[in-house]
Design brief:
Structural class: alpha+beta
Radius of gyration: 28 Å
Strand order of the largest sheet: 1-2
Shape: elongated
Low-confidence stretches: none
Distance between the termini: 75 Å
């Protein structure tokens, strides 16, 4: 779909073109690090917006997510990780953990009943 926005003046001294504010906001060009790729296509100059962090990946760069990534890196570096060769091995591990939790809960219930 093609939408005509209007015209933008080219500053003769340095070739600067101002993209309308509504388009800068719409395409994330108002964010730090945003750039515009310039492509010549069939006799036209095409501007393609590029942002430092694409909108669909912004969640990964949130402060909360990055804090969680640092915590996970620290845990891995300390050797606090378990790896599995197969999905079945992983599921069996989860079942063992679940069984242990049930055993501990049952023992706690028994102790509470004895009081």
């Amino acid at each position: 779909m093609e939408t005509h926005i209007g015209f933008a003046a080219v500053q003769p001294k340095n070739g600067t073109i101002t993209i309308p504010a509504q388009l800068r906001r719409r395409f994330g060009l108002d964010k730090p690090g945003a750039q515009v790729e310039i492509v010549v296509r069939d006799g036209e100059i095409v501007l393609l917006p590029h942002v430092a962090v694409p909108a669909e990946q912004a969640w990964f760069w949130s402060a909360r997510w990055q804090a969680n990534e640092r915590e996970a890196d620290t845990e891995l570096a300390a050797g606090h990780a378990t790896t599995f060769d197969t999905a079945e091995d992983f599921l069996a591990h989860l079942e063992r953990i679940d069984a242990e939790t049930d055993d501990e809960s049952g023992a706690a219930d028994e102790r509470a009943d004895e009081r």
